[in-house]
Amino acid sequence: MKPLLIAGNWKSNKGIAEAKEWVRQFNAKCQMLNAKWDHITVVLCVPFTLVYPLKREISQLRLPVQLGAQDVSPFGEGAYTGEVSATQIKELADWVIIGHSERRKYFGETDEVLMQKVAQAKAAGLKIIFCVPDDKTPIPADVDVAAYEPVWAIGTGYADTPENAATVIATLKQKFSIRQVLYGGSVTAENVVSFVAQPAIDGVLPGGASLDAAKFFDLLTAAQSIP
Length: 227
Prior knowledge:
This protein is α/β, with parallel strands linked by helices.
């Protein structure tokens, strides 16, 4: 079966009680339907405040879900008020998103800053999902996974076509010698198969569809059907 990476991005949503309830609902679906994600690596990228409580919940229930952060400091530990360093994240999570379009848009993150974040994450042993809006934005050499996320498709309900997404992703792989690239932008349980069925696409980065436990479960179940 084709190996896939599906990483849900909760963005700035949910408090601790809501997050724990999400895990309980997701676990109930998994138990009821005896779900096994044999060829899917499942990741949840959550706000910093939720990483520790979700790590406890997921560990106790033995769910096959890995945790990720949505950002990382471009600096190491030290006098950087408000920042969370890569080494601090690594104590609780395995993954981190870097370069999401919302970080670029609302926080003015430049390619230089993103390179610093990648260097910090790699030094700490974090796996990186590096987001780009097109096939022209540079991807650092040390990145594990990239995600193509056209800005106009994020949170709009209008996804790119699977064929165009596959073309962009194939170009990214060739230009930057990266082996694993995801698609992100209005991914749902209804359209996920059309994306992951494309040979060039190695998984998806859903946002809104990951906030509801049942919808995220349905998305994973649909993706699991790809041979």
